[in-house]
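In response to reviewer comment 3 from the previous cycle, which asked for concrete evidence that the modeling workflow produces usable outputs, we include below a single protein chain processed end to end. The sequence was submitted unchanged, and the resulting structure tokens are shown without manual editing.
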Amino acid sequence: MKEIDWANLSFGYMPTDYNVRCYYRDGKWGEIEVCSEQTINIHMAATCLHYGQEAFEGLKAYRCPDGKVRVFRMDENAARLQSTCRGILMPEVSTELFEEMVTKVVRLNERFIPPYESGASLYIRPLLIGTGAQVGVHPADEYMFVIFVTPVGPYFKGGFATNPYVIIREFDRAAPLGTGIYKVGGNYAASLRANKMAHDLGYSCEFYLDAKEKKYIDECGAANFFGIKNNTYITPKSSSILPSITNKSLMQLAEDMGMKVERRQIPEEELATFEEAGACGTAAVISPIERIDDLENKKSYVISKDGKPGPISTKLYHHLRGIQYGTEPDVHGWTKVVIE
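The workflow returned the following structure tokens.
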């Protein structure tokens, strides 16, 4: 294996040694299989290809300064995948099977886990697809659950630094009663044009308002939004956004810090009142927001006056990262050691 430049990894795909797979046939899940093949051989009429029976998750393994490797809140990823399965009629993957497969694939690819000092991590991608052939619009009778891993660097090249966002009204990521609360590929396909539009305009990401009224904050691209003011952590309540495990964790940490937490509708004009704001998710943890431009109405909501991350966002970021890397007490039992 050629030497990997751990400090300069992109957030992209790098081949690793093994992935793990499990097949659902005849009404039950089979045994876990270890595979070194990077491709999947499926029927051309598979429901994942035609009717979107596809779900995925994203989580990370961290090599810690004590030499152990930890995975963060994988039980929550399992629970969210189970919710998606119920939403698009796929067989649920039990938490036990999910965690066993995550642990196995991390151990099998231990040599690809970046060192602690690099700031990189091992990204874990569970994928569940309908493989049974259907021509009518029906759920499949066979499914494949596969987990692969790849080492990744920071999601944003600048790391923990502020980024500009732009409100895009021409496109919606998900409808209020649609699949927005599930982690399915169609939601991300629906965001590609808006994302390209934002990048072409020189912004880090697009910013969505609610699809029904275009009045309330929904999501920052594929990440959850939070705003901070008056010692209060505020995040949108919406039936069309994915429940972020990172956001859930940050809400708990904010409470631990003595902050008030509010999950409610946030009108666009309230952006002008926030002392700090950020996008949060597995990939970046927190991406602090510098400003949010509303080009259509010729407004700019400047969140960070000095262009730097705010003190509360910074504290939350380092606290969560400390728990993930085992350098701060894990009082809520969020991490699991998978390699001693």
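The CA atoms of residues 176 and 240 lie 5 Å apart. We consider this sufficient to address the reviewer's concern, and the full set will be provided in the supplementary archive.
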